[in-house]
Amino acid sequence: MPIFQPELETLPRPQLKALQDERLREQVHYVYARVPFYRQRLDEAGIKPGDIRGVEDLPKLPFTRKKDLREHYPFGMFAVGREELARIHASSGTTGKPTVVGYTRGDLEVFAEVVARSLAAAGGEPGMMLHNAYGYGLFTGGLGLHGGAEKLGMLVVPVSGGMTERQIMLIQDFKPEMISCTPSYAQTLAEEFKKRGVAPEEISLKYAVLGAEPWTEAIRKSVEEGLGVRATNIYGLSEIIGPGVSNEDVHEREGLSYIWEDHFYPEIVHPETGEPLPEGETGVLVLTTLTKKAMPILRYWTGDLTFITREPAPSGRTHARMGQIRGRTDDMLIIRGVNVYPTQIEEVLKGIAEVEPHYQIVVSRQGTLDEVELKVELAEGFYRHIGAQMLSDEVVEADHQLSALRDKVAFKIKDNVGVSVKVSLLSPGTAPRSEGGKLKRVADLRRLS
């Protein structure tokens, strides 16, 4: 399978290291001059830009965390003014405010370049058709894959997410060779084809590029068998650039994804101490952008637990490879590709007078899609009101009000957080309470292996 940029993807390690060092030095001087947040952080740490000579000096720098981005909403982390921006994307935040990221025209070129590398590694070639079922809009997935596919020379069908009937029809009529979507949605499409009596060998798809949520070899197997494809994992974060930070090679896989480390330098650190860990040990993935100009990020704490290896690879690429994500260090859930924090749910509940912000989120997987049940307590006053109606034989009216409240809560969660939930109403005092330790707001019953 051709490598998209062999001169860079197979660059000998000493030359790659020299390129990383040069780009890092430039980036540290750049952010110190242009981003007040970083100037203050480096000054507080007693670090001058000239102190950072190469990637081995990165541990001297403080981490950047998601809360830093939220606290500087919307544009406080940007290094350029509005007139230099070409695009803005955003991802979910914990209080209804999104995490905002920006791109210069040069950044969009880099974005397209790394996604093109990823698609080529996944089996894509110029002239192939990509059925892009990632969501378009503020989410980086749809437009990110689109730009990279065009850069590679592919024909893109910008289907976006949802509307499964339409997706099935277009795949059958247009006959694309590659699809990009979440792994759970790929499973859904496979089930829909099976219901219609369409065998995997009758489907035109040959390759699937899947990401935006955790998945495992068992899920890969079901997608490959159901759609007749070879599936690879694409990894990325909006804060770094979007999808295309890394991707598996379709002929190697084994859960190892190439990190395009001429643009994104990876570190693995201890989840509690933040100290660097040796190659091969599992810890938190930390990423530094080496070329991004609109919103450069130094030592971003992703919260994702994995390991990296720089052992020689069969493809001849010299870039580091990362293992499958083994978990997260924070409480974020990924539901059908959407980042969900319990505090987002709590903020919505605070605005509904009939309920209290005492709740539990139960996540399960029915078939191929995640299901979310929100158990929430009724407010004492509303609970007494409903009880009085029950006692006075106004049972139908009480049931009507409870049903309307469930619909109201579900609508507000969907509108503010972006996920559909089944709402169960609890009597006061029955939701889980803290017993001295951390309160477990989430019961994740999914089995990803």
From TrEMBL:
It is an enzyme of class 6 (ligase). Its EC number is 6.2.1.30. One of its GO terms (biological process) is phenylacetate catabolic process. InterPro entries: AMP-bd_C_sf, AMP-dep_Lig_C, AMP-dep_synth/lig_dom, ANL_N_sf, PA_CoA_ligase. CDD domains: PaaK (cd05913). Signal peptide: none annotated. It catalyses: 2-phenylacetate + ATP + CoA = phenylacetyl-CoA + AMP + diphosphate. Pathway: Aromatic compound metabolism; phenylacetate degradation. Residues 337-446 form the AMP-dependent ligase C-terminal domain. GO terms for molecular function: nucleotide binding; phenylacetate-CoA ligase activity. Keywords: Ligase, Nucleotide-binding. Gene3D superfamilies: 3.30.300.30, N-terminal domain of ligase-like (3.40.50.12780). Pfam families: AMP-binding (PF00501), AMP-binding_C_2 (PF14535). Residues 79-287 form the AMP-dependent synthetase/ligase domain. Catalyzes the activation of phenylacetic acid (PA) to phenylacetyl-CoA (PA-CoA). Monomer. Belongs to the phenylacetyl-CoA ligase family. This is Phenylacetate-coenzyme A ligase.
